[in-house]
TrEMBL record:
Pfam families hit by this protein: Pyr_redox_2
Protein's UniProt name: NAD(P)/FAD-dependent oxidoreductase
Family assignment from sequence similarity: Belongs to the NADH dehydrogenase family.
Cofactor: FAD
Cross-referenced InterPro entries: FAD/NAD-bd_sf (IPR036188), FAD/NAD-binding_dom (IPR023753), NADH-Q_oxidoreductase (IPR051169)
Organism: Bacillus carboniphilus
Length: 355
């Protein structure tokens, strides 16, 4: 039996399982999925979990069941490509014939002193739970600082505003306006929503240091009762340790077929892969679709195309609480209730097809 090992049951890992199971997997292939959680987590909704507007079970989807699928729970500590095995914490190593690395990301603190010690995170379900507990135990009129004006920071700040209108929320964004890389109309809409709803947006921010309950912006102290960091990501530490070629962001450089240049049996997808687009759930799923096609051809001994089609992304959708949203779909800016309904519909469809 060939052993296909998938590290991480995120969006990419789940798409691979969805395409192979129940009846597209060759009879001589066994899949082993390794994840620290006993369920697939909807990472794009962690902001709502941390804000307290949804419960834990809303961000969990069960893994599929199949005779040719084994699920192992635990922490990966190392990938030994010479011996083709995955080393685990307090467990026996797992050997593979083909390996898909989709271990996701962790926060990137940009060498800001104290940021890793004195801020909260929404990068994992465990950290989102801790953030929820802290934010929702704050007394009225407490100050919450959210560092990072990207999609995660915007959604967290807006959701928290609806969940806890008694809190004073400050969103620190390094751009001249929120979402400065997006069309101006969209940026102005989001910035205007925050101004209307009493969220203080601090533009041109430069966080230089974090101390307990103090955020230093351009050297000036900003007292906060809680600080949440959403200002960048980097690959999982296991991937950081891999002695392979990487780009300036620490992501793994791949061939057009998504495998390592020197090893056609190791594939990397999602936040750990160096690709032309910014990391996203859509991108991980698009990669997964192509990795499945490549594996099927290699298992059959068929030649691979020189190039694979460019992964097409449908756009970006973000929420501003439960009733408003924003997005960029087919290069068209959408705002307001329609954008929020569209995002809710996409989430419902995803859970319907994977639940």
């Amino acid at each position: 039996m060939k052993q296909l090992v998938i590290l991480g049951g995120g969006y990419g890992g789940m798409r691979i399982l969805q395409r192979f199971l129940p009846n597209q997997l060759p009879e001589d292939v066994q899949i082993t999925l390794i994840d620290r959680n006993p369920y697939h987590c909807l990472k794009t909704e962690y902001y709502a979990l941390a804000a307290g507007t949804i419960s834990d079970h809303h961000v969990r989807v069960s893994f599929p069941e199949h005779p040719q699928l084994e699920i192992r729970y635990g922490d990966v500590t190392n990938i030994n490509m010479d011996e083709k095995k995955v080393e685990m914490l307090n467990q026996e190593p797992i050997h593979y014939d083909d390996l898909v690395v989709g271990l996701g990301c962790v926060d990137k603190y940009h060498n800001v002193p104290g940021a890793d010690q004195y801020t909260y995170s929404i990068q994992s379900i465990e950290s989102s739970r801790r953030t929820y507990e802290t934010l929702n135990n704050l007394p009225a009129n407490s100050v919450v600082g959210v560092v990072g004006g990207g999609l995660s920071g915007i959604e967290l700040a807006s959701e928290l505003r609806e969940s806890r209108p008694d809190l004073r929320i400050r969103l620190f964004d390094r751009g001249e306006i929120i979402l400065s890389s997006f069309p101006r109309r969209l940026s102005e809409y989001v910035q205007g929503w925050f101004e209307t709803h009493g969220v203080e947006v601090i533009n041109k921010a430069n966080i230089t240091k974090v101390e307990p309950n103090i955020l230093y912006n351009n050297g000036e102290p900003n007292p906060c009762d809680a600080i949440v960091w959403t200002a960048g990501i980097q690959p999982n530490p296991v991937v950081q340790k891999m002695e392979v070629e990487k780009d300036s962001q620490g992501r793994v450089v791949l061939t057009p077929h998504h495998n390592l240049p020197g090893d056609e049996h190791v594939y990397v997808l999602g936040d750990c892969a160096s690709l032309p687009h910014a990391p996203s759930a859509q991108l991980a799923e698009g990669q997964a679709e192509q990795i499945v096609q490549v594996l099927q051809k290699r298992w059959k001994g068929e030649p691979l195309p020189e190039k694979l089609p460019r992964i097409k992304l449908k756009g970006v959708l973000g929420s501003l609480g439960k009733k408003h949203g924003f997005g960029l779909v087919a290069e068209r800016t959408i705002t307001g209730r329609f954008a929020r309904l569209l995002k809710s519909g996409v989430l419902w469809m995803y859970k319907y097809h994977n639940g």
